[in-house]
Amino acid sequence: MNKIWIILEREYLQRVKKKSFILSTILTPLIFPLFIAITVFVLSTEESEERIILLLDQNNFIEDSLEFQNNLLIKSYKEISDIQYQINNGQIYGALEIPKLNIYEPKDLKFYSKNVPGGDLISGLESLVESRIRDLKIQDLNLNEESLKKLKTRIFMETYTIDLGLTEGSDEEVAVKQSNSDLAFGLGYFNGFLIYMFVFIYGSFILQSVLDEKTSKVVEVIVSSIKPIQLMMGKVLGVGAVAFTQIFIWIILVSSISTLTSMYFGINSYETTQIIQSEEEISNSKEIVKGIYEMFGTIDIKKTILIFLIYFLGGFFLYGAFFAAIGSAVDNLQDASQFTLPISLPIIASLMFMGIVLNNPEGNASIFLSMFPLTSPILMMARLSFGVPDWHLFISILILIISVVFALWFAGRIYRVGILTSGSKISYKLLWKWFIMKNY
Amino acid sequence: MLSVKNISKSYVDHKALDDVSLEVNKGSIFGLLGPNGAGKTSMIRIINQIINQDEGAIYLNNKEITYDDVRKIGYMPEERGLYKKMKVGDFLLFMGKLKGLSRDKCIDSAADWFENLEVSNWWKKNIEDLSKGMSQKVQFISTVIHNPDLIILDEPFSGFDPVNANLVKKNLLRMKEEGKTIIFSTHRLESVDELCDHLAMINNSKKILDGNTDEIKMNSKSDNYIIKHNNKISTNDKLFSIVSQNKLSNKVYESELSLAKGKSYRTMFSEISNEVDIISFEQKVPNMNDIFIMKVEEGKNE
Asked: A414 with A355: CB under 8 angstroms?
């Protein structure tokens, strides 16, 4: 155990002292919000050149030229064959052709352009024509516009989860707390993605580190005083400790940033709004931020973090063991890729299955995927914010732990042979022979 | 001190060692010789328990060797290297700690070794800034930093420049004087006789020769003599045959003579000195390379 510690210590200090580690640890929590802010900014100021679209309308649905999105729709009585050259050379962006049609069976509407038009433009044009046809139908059927408006209903449902644990010491009759599906969706996605990212990045660190020892030939010097499995464990634990440190610093950074912003938007909002009275926008954005904080109040953050760390460690060790085995077997990074691909597939698949799980967190597929050890670290995290029964968590974590032990044992058997073997062409068959080899 | 008993080892596709036994005495230098791929490295890895033997056992001081014993061995593998991104001091501390040394002892021991190997103190230097010769010295220091009683070096002189190789040889002999036991392997057979007291040869996974260095040489010597003289020697079939005779310069000839069976070299000496002036007269002692080739040939004939 002591010797594992020596390996761990070296691995940890070597990585933590690196400039790249320090920079990425401090900058990432700052870069993410910045990135989001830039995206929002770009989207809100999206403005492109005004484009001309000709309306070839034989029904006169649209009486006059009009501005639509960022386009100028101009009525025209030309044929499409007359203007195709202008569309082709870019003078006109496109043309909407509406043939004579029956408003109860509209068909053969066509849009012509040089490039494939964006989805927003097409659906916008469709709804424009639909609303004109709707108006015509109202006239045709002699309907009353006012009563039609009254037919429209919009409902916003608030969702609550029942939690009997809350009744103690509370005056409320029903033990509920307000929940938010969108937030659960977002949080599930975020947590799952974070684990995905860490498993990939730190998994490849392990591979790299094992491979470095093998290529720099320092490994045999070390295994003369420590068992290969101890070396591997020390390495995996060391890299894991680095990942843990990074997450820990991120949690602290993010929570202190969010505490600062909540102080600014929460407590101080009174004073600032009094001073700057007319700035409606600022108070609006404060409302939104306040709302987000209230929403997060509905989630058990401590439990989420604890379970996140469990699955993070589980996923990291499970995949880390495989990455270590690969690193020990191959001679260079190029050869490693053919073996990292099958290992990476379940991780990538997890990300793709995330949609299924987030939309139906209690479906059979979701339950299975959140138990299966190769996908559970990511997909149980995706399920978690929707509420998961404790026994599901228990079984899933138990399976994960057993799998981790098995994976480390499996990897250790490959590792002990791999680190001392170079120059041989590695195949799955050879790896299997190493695995079953009794004496090495 | 160390006895290796009937070790056999097979890999996936070939046999590396076939029933090899060795006996290493305390306070001696033991040479394990053989061409590349003979099984030397496998033997050394088995002694160090880096790989396990299929059959046989290793005894250290008459007890079967344990993992704790192995940690006390100073082992320098053939495939050796350093962490490029570390400082020399950090690396030596790391290796020392793995060998169970305390921090202070590590620093003291490293300072002593820096002195022995005639280098200034490199404690704070980056390993990637070291020259090849320098990193070889650091490698050697990391092997012996814990002052081991048994030192095993796999191909220690490959990659060392002659100056460094001599320095290491000097230190090995000094350590022998201090009572340490040293085992080393090499595929360069010619330059080892002066260093090892005892040697074993391995070829094609089998031991083909084992014994005291001087005895081996004596046993392998032939009845050929190298003689330098000032004039041509005429043949004397009853006493000797001339294997070769070359004129080196004016008045200096070198001849190899093969003594006939049952005759004494003294007779031959007096016989020749009657005819020519003898400048030098020595028995032809084979070097390890010759002995090795002889042994391999013998093996083929059997």
From this structure: no
B76 touches chain A (CB under 8 A): yes
Across A118-127, A159-168, A235-244, the highest mean pLDDT is recorded for A235-244
Backbone angles phi, psi at A248, to 5 degrees: -60, -45
Q: Which residue has the tokens 């070198």?
A: B254
- Write the CB contacts of A361 (distance below 8 Å, at least 6 apart in sequence): A188, A382, A383, A386, A388
Q: Which domains does chain A have, with CATH numbers?
A: 2-30+181-436 (no CATH), 51-144 (3.40.190.10)
Q: Any CB–CB contact under 8 A between B77 and chain A?
A: yes
Domains of chain B, earliest start first: 2-218 (3.40.50.300), 222-284 (3.30.70)
Distance between CA atoms of residues A280 and A266, nearest Å: 16
The pLDDT of residue A272 is 41
Backbone angles phi, psi at B290, to 5 degrees: -60, -45
Interface touch A439/B54, C-beta < 8 Å? yes
ipTM for the complex? 0.75
Q: Does B232 touch chain A (CB under 8 A)?
A: no
Chain A interface disruption, residue of B7, B44, B50, most A CBs within 10 A: B50
> Is A439 in Cβ contact with B81 (below 8 Å)?
no
CB A207 within 8 A of CB A327: yes
Inform me whether the C-beta atom of residue B57 falls under 8 Å from chain A C-beta atoms. Answer: no
Task: Map A349-401 to HEC letters.
Answer: HHHHHHHHHHHCCCCHHHHHHCCCCCCHHHHHHHHHCCCCCHHHHHHHHHHHH
Render pLDDT for B143-159 as a digit per residue (tens, 0 to 9). Answer: 999 989 999 998 888 77
Residue A230 CB-half CA count within 13 A = 15
B13 touches chain A (CB under 8 A): no
Distance from CA of B52 to the nearest CA of A (A): 5
Number of H helices, E strands in chain B: 9, 14
> Which of these, B181, B174, B162, B157, lies nearest to B115 by C-alpha position?
B174
**Residue B279 token pair:** 């400048």
Chain B hits for A3, CB-CB cut-off 8 Å, are 98
**Cβ count within 10 A of residue A23:** 10
Q: What's the rounded Cα separation, in Å, for the pair B28 and B211?
A: 12
In chain A, what is the straight-line distance between the N-terminal and C-terminal CA atoms, in Å? 22
Total Cβ atoms within 10 A of residue A305: 15
Mutation target among A216, A218, A422 for the B interface, most CBs of B within 10 A? A218
Task: For A201-246, write each residue's pLDDT tens digit.
Answer: 898 899 999 998 888 888 888 888 888 889 999 999 999 999 889 8
- Total-model pTM: 0.74
